[in-house]
Amino acid sequence: MKFCLFSAAAIAAAALAAPSHAATAYAIDFDSTRTGSSSTAGSIDTETGFTSLDVTNGGSASVNVSGIDFELFTTNVNASRRRAGPNPLTRDFIFEEGGNNDAVGILIGGAGDLAAGTWQVEVWAWDADISAQLDAMIIGSRKDNAETIHTTAFAGSPTDPFTFNLVSDGTRAYDVFVRENNDANKTRMNAIRLTLVPEPGSLALLGLGGLALIRRRRG
Ligand SMILES: [Ca+2]
Ligand SMILES: [Ca+2]
Ligand SMILES: [Ca+2]
Hints:
alpha+beta, 6-stranded antiparallel sheet, about 40% strand, binds calcium ion
């Protein structure tokens, strides 16, 4: 019997073992000083609790957060803007427009970088100056470049993200993208946040493991 309890503790310890990147949340605000195609008179304005990714010059801008390189990617030539409103998170963004199926996105490092588990993904997509044209955008994710589409009809929001779950196996490469699905061929991406969802099974095992340790000490 004691052997069984010890096994439970060992399994619980394994569940606790830190992956290569142990962070349980990544929050990135795409920031830009670009107020026009040839003007960068704005200021970098980062939302509280978010890491700044300076996308002023677009391209493949990147930022390392807790060991993972978050890097922009795009289907064509991307660009950024900073608007007057409405808040530090959604006033600045990377964008792509002009062509059918134009998309922008962000790589979550490379193969094996995103720890195994279920991640809640929040994507902010908004542009206060052209909000009426953003009547529909596609939000998707990729696992080794294989797409999963999570919505085809996100109309954007000055405050609220589109939210979905992404399951990582801890070995593949993942990314998240926004693709136009509107007559204006316009897409925007303002910020992203990933939050690890606790696994009920792991919590149960941890409870068992803790119990086993207590019993061993008493026994
Ligand atoms: Ca932003
Ligand atoms: Ca910002
Ligand atoms: Ca279109």
